[in-house]
Amino acid sequence: MSAAEHEATSWQPGSVREAGGGLFALALATFVAITTELVPVGLLPLISDDLAVSEGVAGLLVTAYAFMVAVLAVPLTTATRRLPRKTVLLSALAVYTVSNVIVAVAPTFALVATARALGGASHAVFFSVSIGYASRLVRAHLAGRALALVTLGASAGFVLGVPLSTALGTAVGWRTAFLVLAGVCALAGVLTALLLPSVPGGGAPPADADRGARRTALARVTTANALAYLGHYTVYTYVSVLLLAAGLATSALGPALLLIGALGLIGAAYAAARLDVRPRQTTVLTLVVVAGGILALGLAFPGTAGTLTAAAVWSVGFGAVAAVFQAAAIRTRGASPDVVGALVNSTANIGIGGGAALGALVLDGAGFAAVPYTGAGIVAAALVVVLAARRAFPATHDVGADIAH
């Protein structure tokens, strides 16, 4: 037995404090993963100008990435299930690094799109494994808080990663922004190797009489997850375009995204505090704020101040979205933690890629003003699914029914 295998076998889940180093490593890795996925959002105008494509076509860089995740999350997670979980995560971070380097030096849009697809394949494995990984680091009744803390890394991707890369790309070029991101990915890989303990895989739920109901609950969670991301990314993929159309100066775009994104930490912190206590209430309130914020953006557009204020409200809500759906999916026990992670990852990216594509269609067809109304309607549909699925989104958390480690 190797040292890594022995460590994984002997690892025992503990408190959030005891697992702090591992949770920090996962949050850091999540930060670079989210930043890698979304960095084109703030750089769309620069990329489209440099590569001589429309902003709608440039937005497909997000779509191609997301659809690779959607298609490959389950099969790649299944194919790597016998490999050490830590090794899989570190390999994914290495591929992120390579993908960003290729994007930075690619002379054509086709090669940029190919490199983004490579990053999407890495993303398919990374988030599928990291969701199950975080739940295994702590005792079962603390899974919601652990997942919420890890998704602070995702919020930091919005708060720091995308806005800072946007500001950097505006100042010195979008290609330099991707090179800097590649360096940050490599650094995250080194720190993850040092801080993240190895944990065992497995954890499949029992094949008892309740298995069908658990799988149905998981299906409802992932459906709501896909709709929430679809509605959000229909608008968010083109937020830089919308803000510029609302009269925001190009030089102010990076700082504006930084400020708006920072407010997402409020939602993430709320999820960390409430998910293990009032999961249904937390989920419903999260979607109400997201849908309301996007709708308010549509009503305020093209007024600059109103559009920025509505985007800030929307960001507060979206800061909690990843955690509420990851925790709900894990707690259905509809599959093993890694397979649950793959399904959450896949459906989220169906929403991300579909949102980018749908947003492009609406933007090129009906125009700027119609994009927020489309997104708000889809998030409202996710809320309807949550309200109807009481088993999948229970009012309180039953510790005894939680996942087994």
TrEMBL record:
<keyword id="KW-0472">Membrane</keyword>
<feature type="transmembrane region" description="Helical">
    <location>
        <begin position="117"/>
        <end position="134"/>
    </location>
</feature>
<protein>
    <submittedName>
        <fullName>MFS transporter</fullName>
    </submittedName>
</protein>
<feature type="transmembrane region" description="Helical">
    <location>
        <begin position="242"/>
        <end position="272"/>
    </location>
</feature>
<keyword id="KW-0812">Transmembrane</keyword>
<feature type="transmembrane region" description="Helical">
    <location>
        <begin position="146"/>
        <end position="164"/>
    </location>
</feature>
<feature type="transmembrane region" description="Helical">
    <location>
        <begin position="311"/>
        <end position="330"/>
    </location>
</feature>
<dbReference type="Pfam" id="PF07690">
    <property type="entry name" value="MFS_1"/>
</dbReference>
<keyword id="KW-1003">Cell membrane</keyword>
<feature type="domain" description="Major facilitator superfamily (MFS) profile">
    <location>
        <begin position="22"/>
        <end position="393"/>
    </location>
</feature>
<feature type="transmembrane region" description="Helical">
    <location>
        <begin position="284"/>
        <end position="305"/>
    </location>
</feature>
<dbReference type="InterPro" id="IPR020846">
    <property type="entry name" value="MFS_dom"/>
</dbReference>
<feature type="transmembrane region" description="Helical">
    <location>
        <begin position="176"/>
        <end position="196"/>
    </location>
</feature>
<dbReference type="InterPro" id="IPR036259">
    <property type="entry name" value="MFS_trans_sf"/>
</dbReference>
<dbReference type="InterPro" id="IPR050189">
    <property type="entry name" value="MFS_Efflux_Transporters"/>
</dbReference>
<feature type="transmembrane region" description="Helical">
    <location>
        <begin position="369"/>
        <end position="389"/>
    </location>
</feature>
<feature type="transmembrane region" description="Helical">
    <location>
        <begin position="56"/>
        <end position="76"/>
    </location>
</feature>
<feature type="transmembrane region" description="Helical">
    <location>
        <begin position="342"/>
        <end position="363"/>
    </location>
</feature>
<feature type="transmembrane region" description="Helical">
    <location>
        <begin position="217"/>
        <end position="236"/>
    </location>
</feature>
<dbReference type="InterPro" id="IPR011701">
    <property type="entry name" value="MFS"/>
</dbReference>
<keyword id="KW-1133">Transmembrane helix</keyword>
<feature type="transmembrane region" description="Helical">
    <location>
        <begin position="88"/>
        <end position="111"/>
    </location>
</feature>
<feature type="transmembrane region" description="Helical">
    <location>
        <begin position="21"/>
        <end position="44"/>
    </location>
</feature>
